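Handout for the seminar on molecular recognition.
Each group receives one record of this type.
Step one: identify the two inputs.
Step two: read the structure output and locate the region that could contact nicotinamide-adenine-dinucleotide.
Step three: write two sentences on what you found, then compare them with the reference statements printed after the record.
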Amino acid sequence: MDSRRKFLQKLALPALALPFLPLPSWANLQKPTLIPYQGPVLRVAIMGLGGYGTRVAEAMKDCKKAKLVGVISGTPAKIKTWQSKYGIPAKNCYNYENFDEVKNNPDIDAIYVITPNALHHNQVIRSAKAGKHVICEKPMAVNAKEGQEMVDACKKANVKLLVGYRMHFEPKTLEIIRMRKAGELGKITFFQGLVGFKVGDPNQWRLSKELAGGGSLMDIGIYAINGARYMVGEEPMWVTAQETKTDPAMFKKDVDETIQFQFGFPGGAVASCLSTYNMNNLDKFFLNGNDGFAEMQPSTNYGPIKARTHQGELSHPHVTHQTVQMDEMAEIILNGKQPIVPVDGEEGLKDLKIIDAIYEAVQTGNKVSLKLS
Ligand code: NAD
């Protein structure tokens, strides 16, 4: 590691100082120099070493500004594996009973909560009380009441609360947002968000009301909810929603299989969205304006995201979403950077208010009013 760093430092020297290296081409001089990052690094402990926690840990290997330094898990065997895989010292390992002790650990700055949805509320509040910044996976909680309590707890503890909205840093998504803000699509009239997959194993926590807080809407539908907001660039004023359940044995009471929902926005745009656990590879955004359109498919999976607009195909290179997300979140936490699309607890809370309203609209059949800003 040390010798690699020295090698990279050498590469950062002017080319003339390195006569033993081939002279770089003009094209290479245009590329950023390989100066190793020397600024502050966000030291992160991951809580919940499951499928997505593992993906985040792997992606963090390539982060410059964030580093995985700790784990919180209920499974000692997993802790051991992660320790050797990521070089995590024993003093940075906790379980769900004792992780409040992290408050005495100056080597951990932030906890990234990646557990089943219904556990986020308690785990985020405990992390905040331990004086650590918190990154929480989506959905931030299972309803707006809990979400508000989490926002309040983090404010009280003077720590930051961020939500794992990785698409807020995805280059093609950001380009479409730039185009919309610059007026290149004209007045926005319509958004369509279609998201879903076949959920599989009937015994998983995603199909338990107690652990998931609901069904597809909580897990995948939230991408269309959040996407409608950042694509249109306004907060919805009302929602209507309808549920379809074809398999009541798999999708029990309060666990939604398929929900269609519609939004109305203050500027006159409308949105039509579908969230499902019963259709594979459904992952499409469409944004229409009076002067143009943007279309993404896939729009929210791990990528490469594909996008085209009325001006043509977008060619921004694929990035590993979680690597960029964690580097950007380190900037937000350590340096107060303002992201283009917010990723804070208030942003997560807005989505939870909409989720509450969608479930209310499904149950009552009513058009439900929203007040988000
Ligand atoms: P998973 O089942 O793969 O992992 C969940 C982890 O939580 C496991 O390690 C499990 O042992 C642990 N856990 C702790 N207490 C538990 C309990 N009481 N019951 C069950 N498991 C318990 O799930 P996942 O796919 O990693 O999802 C975790 C969170 O991450 C969810 O909130 C999910 O919505 C979110 N997620 C986000 C993305 C994204 O792209 N941002 C992708 C996948 C999942």
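Reference statements: Residues 43 and 108 are 5 Å apart (CA to CA). The pocket of nicotinamide-adenine-dinucleotide is lined by residues 48-53, 74, 114-117, 119, 137-138, 164, 166, 205, 211, 219 (CB under 6 Å).
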